[in-house]
Amino acid sequence: MPVLAIAAAVQLAPLAAPVLLSTDGYTYWDYGRIGAVHDANPYADNPSAFPDDPAYERMGADWRDTTTVYGPVFTLASEGHAAVVGDSPAAAAWVYKALGALAVLVLTGLAAFLGREKAFAAAFVGWNPLLAVHFAGGGHNDAWMMALVLGALALGAAGRRQWAGAAWVGAVAIKWVALVFLPLRALEARAQGRRVGHLGFAAAAAVVAAVATWRYGGGWLEALGPLAKNVREGANYSFPSRLSSLGVPHDAAVALFAVLFALAYLWLLRHAWRGRARLALCAEFLLLATPWLIAWYAVWAVSLAAVEEDRTARLLALGLCAYLLPDAVPL
User: Fold this and answer.
1) Which residues contact 212 (CB under 8 A, 6 or more apart)?
2) Phi-psi bin for 234: left (phi > 0), alpha (psi -120 to 50), beta?
């Protein structure tokens, strides 16, 4: 299919370049090395405890005194990555970049599977240059999470309910943000009389919790704690930060957008209760409200908007990409 061939060309092209615009891949590498090389706990030990590690000088300075904020599935994967690539910064970065590109291509294929307009859905994801810059270019893990979210939707559509439940657990255990979609999906299933994979979800959650607790103790349950720092500081492109630049106190701006998101979420819950979980709009409202808006988070909205018959969500996803593109590629 020409659409998929073009998508592959767009998404794989940045693999030929060095790491672009972010040091997150090196940050993942450092957290992985804390466990795999130093036999310490990335949920309890800061990277600054190992200043001579080859990943330390390359990781983001803001994370050097912060324990990991990622879920245990991703942390375990990052330990495996660290064990495989050894002390090579080039290998560490390239592997994360390759995995990011692969995840976006998986998203493209899943969008084609789930979307009614298959070519359009694939192009909506695969032809997006913002995603190429940040996943093949930067190796971020958000595409992993969204591949599992769309994987859960695809498994559910194929009748593999228990595996769909397990995929939801995997998504949440990479980044916690996937949790925000679950109540909407559950209410939609109830309204439609659709069976869901409770057993698969519970079994996968039990396995993840048991392995994570064995490996990291209870610290993985507190991984959201360090994100409070991001909320306090904010990111330049976030809408609360934009409001703050007009003279509104930062805390007041954050509180205002939090209230607006809560109201929007209640509205989405009402839609889901009536049988329509508008997950793309949920992702977009979250992006509009978060004080820590980073360009690659657009994959949350883009991948869901591609598969939902929701013109509003698609236009808003494109608008967010256009808004965030100058942050990715300064113009």
Assistant:
1) 72, 75, 76, 173, 220
2) left
- CA 197/CA 160 separation, integer angstroms: 8
Which element (helix H / strand E) includes 320? helix 311-328
Residue 322 exposure: Cα atoms within 13 Å on the Cβ side: 6
Query: What letter does residue 16 receive in the DSSP assignment?
Result: G
Question: First CA to last CA across the chain, in angstroms?
Answer: 33
Task: Walk along the chain (331 residues) and give the pLDDT tens digit of each residue.
Answer: 789 999 999 999 999 888 777 889 999 999 999 999 999 999 999 999 999 999 999 998 888 999 999 999 999 999 999 999 999 999 999 999 999 999 999 999 999 999 999 999 999 999 999 999 999 999 999 999 999 999 999 999 999 999 999 999 999 999 999 999 999 999 999 999 888 888 999 999 999 999 999 999 988 888 766 555 656 666 788 999 999 989 999 899 999 999 999 999 999 999 999 999 999 999 999 999 999 899 999 999 999 999 998 999 999 999 999 999 887 664 4
CB within 8 Å of 144: residues ≥ 6 apart: 74, 99, 100, 103, 174
d(CA 127, CA 210): 40
Cα(217)–Cα(75) distance, rounded to whole angstroms? 13
DSSP structure string for 23-67: -HHHHHHHHHHHHHTT---TTTS-GGG-TTSTTTTTS-GGGTTS-
Helices and strands, number each (H, E), in the chain: 16, 0
Enter the tokens of residue 110: 């899943």
Residue 249's SS3 state is coil
